[in-house]
Specification:
Shape: flat
Number of strands: 0
Largest sheet: none
Number of domains: 2
Helix content: over 70%
Order of helices and strands: HHHHHHHHHHHH
Structural class: mainly alpha
Strand content: under 5%
Distance between the termini: 51 Å
Length: about 375
């Protein structure tokens, strides 16, 4: 190609892109369309991802506290044995370590909220940053109350659920800062209303399963049914006195405290939820392959979701068979959070950018 031809081609390409951008409706009238790709601060984008990933690590650290029975290894709050940094031995390592990681995440969230408040021009994103800050403060207070009142079950369960909600908020904030979402301002992608409904149902199902898991963990019901694939020695549990006696006999022989019928029911519903999730997930894969097999980002998200759902099933079985190994149990908890996060990301990548269009796609399809 001759030099003058190359210059003409570059000029034509540049003018074509500018023409496309100028024709695209700008979602922010105060900002010109060709400036949209430069409105996101690259360091803010990276920091939002760092906050998201650090939250995932915090969930793992919290899971290790419960899995090792270290919730009251440090009985005072906000100090630890009257110190800022006690000797990190035994359960103190897990409990105080969890507090240190939580402090770091709280500091990251404070910086993120301030940064968004100063640099972000979209009000809804700024509000998300403020909401995340409120949630992380509430989460810290709940953690303190959990210790001071000797691990009350309702507070402990709420503490675990709020951690998942905070993680979801960090994912939405990180996606709002992504290059992908910025480019989607100018690319029309027709969302399938039925598929959106299916993803919404799937994500809600995962969240409910995490709630059941939190209830099971904080009521000491993780080994209320200690065998797999059978339940109390039978394929179909009857929840009668014979089943309870069989389970408690096993627990006595393995130096575990006896369980009650309600604990067995909690555990059973968590297993039942896992079965429903597997069925819905097969349907989700089938529909996604039919509608989005050529969409790279959606296909990649679905592949990762496939991997972690299969891995989570393996971890759930291993948790029971290993008699709740702390490492396996904690991996099971954090993988559940990761599945929720990937489900939210899949929803964000498929759904329309505006809430108005999202409602139209979901409720009018």
């Amino acid at each position: 190609m001759f030099p003058h031809q190359e210059r003409m081609q570059k000029s034509t390409t540049t003018s074509g892109i500018n023409h496309l951008l100028m024709r695209s409706p700008s979602p922010h009238p105060s900002i010109k369309p060709y400036q949209q790709f430069n409105t996101i601060n690259p360091w803010l984008r990276r920091f939002s991802k760092l906050t998201c990933l650090s939250t995932l690590f915090l969930i793992f650290a919290g899971a290790m506290v419960t899995s090792t029975g270290s919730g009251l290894a440090v009985p005072d709050w906000p100090l630890s044995y009257g110190m800022f940094f006690p000797p990190m031995i035994g359960g103190v390592f897990y409990e105080h370590g969890h507090r240190m990681v939580a402090t770091g995440v709280g500091f990251f969230t404070l910086l993120l909220a301030i940064w968004l408040g100063i640099k972000e021009h979209r009000r809804w994103v700024r509000n998300l940053g403020y909401c995340a800050l409120v949630v992380v403060i509430a989460q810290g207070l709940l953690g303190g109350i959990t210790v001071l009142f000797f691990l009350p079950t309702p507070i402990s369960v709420i503490h675990g659920i709020l951690a998942q909600i905070f993680f979801v908020l960090t994912i939405i904030i990180a996606y709002s800062q992504s290059k992908e979402r910025c480019k989607r301002e100018f690319i029309r992608m027709d969302a399938q209303g039925k598929f959106l409904k299916l993803i919404s149902f799937w994500t809600l199902l995962i969240f409910i399963q995490l709630i059941l898991g939190a209830i099971m963990r904080h009521t000491e019901s993780g080994l209320a049914i200690p065998d797999f694939p059978k339940m109390g020695g039978t394929w179909i549990p009857m929840f009668n006195s014979q089943m309870i006696n069989t389970i408690n006999q096993w627990r006595f022989e393995n130096n575990f405290d006896p369980v009650t019928q309600i604990q067995i029911i909690y555990h059973f519903f968590h297993r039942l939820g896992a079965l429903i999730i597997v069925i819905v997930f097969c349907i989700l894969n089938f529909v996604a392959i039919r509608n989005y097999c050529t969409h790279k980002s959606i296909r990649t998200t679905l592949i990762w979701l496939d991997f972690f759902v299969i891995f989570q099933i393996f971890l759930g079985i291993s948790t029971v068979l290993s008699q709740k190994s702390p490492q396996i149990t904690s991996l099971h908890v954090v993988t559940g959070a990761l599945i929720l996060g990937l489900s939210v990301l899949l929803f964000l990548r498929v759904s329309p950018l505006s809430f108005k269009n999202l409602k139209q796609q979901v409720f009018q399809s």
